Automatic annotation (TrEMBL):
The EC number(s) this enzyme carries: 1.14.14.18
Ranges that cross the membrane: none
InterPro entries named among the record's database cross-references: Haem_Oase, Haem_Oase-like, Haem_Oase-like_multi-hlx, Haem_Oase_decyc_pln
Source species, domain of life: Eukaryota
Annotated GO CC locations: chloroplast
Protein source organism: Crotalaria pallida
Pfam family, one: Heme_oxygenase
The protein, known as: heme oxygenase (biliverdin-producing)
SUPFAM superfamilies: Heme oxygenase-like (SSF48613)
Length: 288
């Protein structure tokens, strides 16, 4: 498994950080994690019996009082994808997903069941989404960091299917709009990020593809029922078993992240909020 060492020698210095374990909880803990969960970071984690360690009431008593308890992160034991998922789920609203905790502020954060989509708005959403997927797929093809190449031909790619869908709309007599500001801004951001900040880029990569396979499909179904006479778009069809394709990508993401320091992992998790912001702007087009 290739690491996130950049191809360019010049860039490599950026990622040769010393692997010093973090001694303070991540900055975002208070923002993303409710108090109940933040507290979990404070207790000594896994109560695995360690030979030679005295145990009191099921709790391991550390041999030295100076020894700091190791911090744990929600989902950490299952792999880094579970950590990314945990942070992402908290950023949903309750209307969007059961695990969501965010307050509804924007129209696209309300339950999809109450959306009032328009074909013109949906077309803008599809065009901007295509620009974002074109960009992601170009980034992994070019692989400025060798690890990106792991994410070529995953079967999750959406660019070609969106191309076919836009062609279908054209045949139905719709004019296909040019990409608009939310898509153009996000594509530009992703391109720049991919060259200088691989951990943050991977956060967007995960959120974009996985969000589409979850909430994205719910949206597709709802919009098709409301305004497309139930026409099922290629955007929501995958060749092969979607859950297997997702699992393959989870495995690769977990492997890539195994080589990251705790700081790099936290940096990746912190980017989730931006991913929601950019994608939220694109989703909002459906309601325009
Ligand atoms: C209308 C907007 C949205 C709705 C209705 C929605 C809904 C959902 C639902 C129902 C799930 C599945 C929860 C489960 O596994 O039980 C989910 C998962 C997820 N969503 Fe969203 N979501 C929306 C927007 C977003 C956005 C903007 C992002 C980030 C860009 C995002 C990222 C994710 C991720 C990463 C998962 C986890 C997928 C997995 O574990 O496979 N979602 N969402």
């Amino acid at each position: 498994m290739s690491s996130l060492t950049p191809v360019s020698q010049f860039q490599s210095s950026l990622f040769n950080k010393p692997r010093v374990p973090s001694s303070s909880p991540p900055q975002f803990a208070s923002v993303f994690f409710p108090k109940r969960l933040s507290l979990q970071f404070q207790v000594s984690p896994p109560l695995l019996p360690v030979s030679g360690m005295p145990m009191k009431g099921g709790v391991i008593v550390s041999a030295t009082t100076a020894e700091k308890p190791q911090k744990r992160y929600p989902g950490e034991s299952k792999g880094f994808v579970e950590e990314m998922r945990f942070v992402a789920m908290k950023l949903h609203t309750k209307d969007q997903a059961k695990e969501g905790e965010k307050e509804v502020k924007e129209p696209q954060e309300r339950t999809v069941a109450k959306w009032d989509p328009t074909v013109d708005g949906y077309l803008k959403f599809l065009v901007d989404s295509k620009l974002v997927y074109d960009t992601l797929e170009k980034i992994v093809q070019e692989a400025a960091y060798p690890a990106y190449a792991e994410f070529r031909n995953t079967g999750l790619e959406r660019s070609a299917s969106l191309e076919k869908d836009l062609e279908w709309f054209k045949e139905q007599g719709y004019a296909i709009p040019e990409p608009s500001s939310p898509g153009v801004t996000y594509a530009q951001y992703l391109t720049e990020l991919s060259q200088k900040d691989p951990q943050a880029f991977i956060c967007h990569f995960y959120n974009i593809y996985f969000a589409h396979s979850a909430g994205g499909r719910m949206i597709g179904k709802k919009v098709a029922e409301n305004i497309l006479n139930k026409k099922e778009l290629n955007f929501y069809k995958w060749d092969g078993d979607l859950s297997q394709l997702l699992q393959n990508v989870r495995d690769k993401l977990n492997k890539v992240a195994e080589e990251w320091t705790r700081e790099e992992k936290n940096h990746c998790l912190e980017e989730t909020e931006k991913s929601f912001k950019f994608s939220g702007e694109i989703l909002r087009l459906i309601l325009s």
